[in-house]
Amino acid sequence: MIEFINVEKVYPNGTKALENINLKIDQGEFVAVIGLSGAGKSTLIRCINRMHDITDGKLYVDETNVSNLKGKQIRRFRRRIGMIFQSFNLVTRTTVLKNVLVSFVPDNPLWRKITGLYTQEQKRKALEALDKVGILDKAYVRVDQLSGGQQQRVALARTLAQNPDIILADEPIASLDPVTSKLVMDDFKRINQELNISVIMNIHHVEVALEYADRIIGIRKGEVVFDGESAKVTDEILHEIYSGNIEELKAALEESHAHV
Ligand SMILES: Nc1ncnc2c1ncn2[C@@H]1O[C@H](COP(=O)(O)OP(=O)(O)OP(=O)(O)O)[C@@H](O)[C@H]1O
């Protein structure tokens, strides 16, 4: 379980990005975080794996008080939490398989790190992860020969290979076309349901969020203004989340229509 207790995040330049955040997210939930640009969505999910430090309150992942982690403990903790970015973060001039194998580097002794050799078991796990996202046939293809959607699935396979409890996804479909977005979202949903991995996704496409996530967290100006089942999100609630900016809400909805 992930638990935020009165969490606040103030950046060193004085910007208050999160305030009074209280949330409990159970293992296996699929949560979409929505809100205007600058509302604090990215900050919220990046506090979970300590990419950002909170400045007040408490944040727990299971029994771990995230703020108390130091050095090696942070690295070990992050092994349990996969992270997917809009930009895929892959090494494009090498093969799909090598990109997935990279997830094992932290576990390997120095000589394996230097030689770039992996165990048969690691290769088997990497191929298994590629199979889970339907691109096993691309294992020996160079990443720069794949479409954006396929690249995002490689990123997903790399994360799966590390056997995470949680996947944090920061705008994972923002640079994908509507058809590909759907395939990638289907992968997230399947992984969530079949492997019981929690998915916490920051997403601009409201309708996609409503279709795929079980739970919506609406953020406005660093505060949670809605937290509930996707099925219970009404136009009034969306207005509340995006209030003060109807034009942006309309644009977000139109963009989402194009994605479903
Ligand atoms: N490294 C930083 N230093 C200072 N302020 C920051 C930093 N990162 C984000 N902010 C500010 O914190 C607030 C929340 O930003 P955040 O990126 O979390 O919003 P967001 O909802 O994810 O936005 P977007 O949808 O545009 O990505 C914004 O006012 C932003 O300008």
Topology:
Layout: E1 2-10, E2 16-25, E3 30-34, H1 41-48, E4 56-61, E5 64-65, H2 71-78, E6 81-85, H3 96-101, H4 110-115, H5 120-132, H6 148-161, E7 166-170, H7 178-195, E8 198-202, H8 206-212, E9 215-220, E10 223-229, H9 235-241, H10 246-259
This protein binds adenosine-5'-triphosphate (ATP).
Describe the structure.
This protein is of the alpha/beta class. It has one domain: P-loop containing nucleotide triphosphate hydrolases (Rossmann fold), CATH 3.40.50. It is built from ten helices and ten strands. The protein has a six-stranded mixed sheet, sandwiched between helices. Strands 2-1-4-5 form a four-stranded antiparallel sheet, covered by helices on one side. Helix 5 (120-132) crosses helix 6 and helix 6 (148-161) runs parallel beside helix 7. The longest helix is centred in the last third of the chain and has 18 residues, at 178-195. The two termini are 31 Å apart. It binds adenosine-5'-triphosphate. The site of adenosine-5'-triphosphate (ATP) has 13 residues, from helix 1.
Question: Brief overview, please?
Answer:
The chain has 260 residues and is of the alpha/beta class. It has helices spanning 41-48, 71-78, 96-101, 110-115, 120-132, 148-161, 178-195, 206-212, 235-241, 246-259, and strands at 2-10, 16-25, 30-34, 56-61, 64-65, 81-85, 166-170, 198-202, 215-220, 223-229.
SS-based class: alpha/beta
Helix content: 25-40%
Q: What is the fold named in CATH at topology level?
A: Rossmann fold
Order of helices and strands: EEEHEEHEHHHHEHEHEEHH
Oligomer: single chain
Strand residue content = 15-25%
State the separation between the terminal residues, measured CA to CA.
31 Å
- Name the CATH superfamily classification: P-loop containing nucleotide triphosphate hydrolases
